[in-house]
């Protein structure tokens, strides 16, 4: 096998017997489809095999870390294009970081004041944990962004990517300093897996604020930063970037539900069993797959110029 071989895992999708390999989820109700990929492949409830023998490509596996780095940076640049289209950009605020595949003690981040809709691979900056530029584009980066993401990558070696923006509904819900309620299926993506950073310390120009944010995140995948915004993480930049949209949308739904509830309408929260079951299907592989439509859209409409 050559040094730059890339393997695309093929996830064979088929019906499965009801079983639970995770002791944390015990269901009193039969679950015909125990994996997210099984569910995606089912086109009706008849139990027919149509659409269930198809193969779904998964996250590629690399034998060459330099090839993997190139692939990851392309995804990262594409993620910025997605964020721009969805309107999460505001001035110079907001950043995505990705741990380097060759030197995991460094990470890549966006340059200061580059509009996300113009972002390319060649714009991205590689820095070490001291804030020194060690690769990529040699330009200024956002100090607050560095303080947040360096603390995060130091505290969480299992996290490969993180996204933080000041989106409207995320900021609005963050003003309450409360976690999301499980109001619907999409909100269950964050069931018992998002934290609230409730000690806003102003713009993170001091390293200590980044450290407090990382501490508040703890072992969770996402966080609501009170009076600030939202933070999502992932095993891939695809996962972290995708998660930002359902989190922003869940904040919007929460605000609408709160407004309706103020008039006396009762909110109906998803039961624990259903919320837990739904959450456990949101694996890193599944969240990577969810990002692909957005990535492919940006690839087509841009003509692939962000790959440069």
UniProtKB/TrEMBL annotation:
Taxonomic classification: Eukaryota, Fungi, Dikarya, Ascomycota, Pezizomycotina
GO molecular function, a single term: actin filament binding
Any Pfam family hit: Aldolase_II
Name of the protein in its database record: L-fuculose-phosphate aldolase
GO cellular component: cytoskeleton
Domain Class II aldolase/adducin N-terminal: 74-255
InterPro entries linked: Aldolase-II_Adducin_sf (IPR051017), Aldolase_II/adducin_N (IPR001303), Aldolase_II/adducin_N_sf (IPR036409)
NCBIfam families in the record: PRK06208.1
């Amino acid at each position: 096998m050559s040094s730059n071989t890339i393997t695309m895992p093929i996830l064979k999708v088929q019906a499965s017997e009801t079983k639970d390999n995770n002791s944390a989820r015990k269901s009193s109700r039969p679950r015909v489809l125990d994996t997210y990929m099984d569910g995606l492949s089912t086109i009706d409830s008849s139990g027919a095999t149509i659409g269930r023998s198809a193969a779904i490509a998964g996250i590629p596996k690399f034998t060459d870390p330099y090839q993997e780095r190139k692939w990851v940076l392309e995804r990262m640049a594409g993620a910025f294009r997605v964020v721009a289209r969805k309107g999460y950009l505001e001035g110079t605020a907001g950043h995505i970081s990705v741990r380097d595949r060759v030197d995991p003690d460094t990470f890549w981040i966006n340059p200061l004041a580059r509009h996300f809709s113009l972002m390319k691979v060649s714009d991205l900056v590689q820095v070490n944990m001291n804030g020194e530029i060690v690769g990529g584009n040699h330009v200024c980066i956002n100090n607050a962004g560095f303080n947040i993401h360096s603390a995060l990558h130091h505290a969480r070696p299992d996290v490969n990517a993180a996204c933080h923006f000041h989106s409207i509904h995320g900021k609005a819900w963050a003003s309450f300093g409360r976690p999301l309620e499980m109001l619907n299926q999409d909100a269950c993506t964050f069931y018992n897996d998002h934290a609230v950073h409730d000690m806003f310390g102003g713009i993170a120009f001091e390293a200590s604020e980044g450290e407090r944010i990382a501490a508040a995140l703890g072992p969770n995948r996402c966080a609501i930063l009170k009076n600030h915004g939202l933070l999502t993480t992932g095993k891939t930049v695809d996962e972290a970037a995708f998660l930002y949209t359902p989190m922003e949308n869940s904040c919007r739904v929460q605000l609408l539900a709160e407004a309706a509830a103020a008039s006396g309408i009762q909110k109906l929260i998803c039961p624990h069993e259903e919320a837990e079951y739904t959450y456990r299907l949101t694996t890193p592989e599944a969240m990577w797959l969810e990002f692909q439509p957005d990535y492919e859209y940006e690839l087509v409409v841009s003509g692939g110029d962000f790959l440069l």
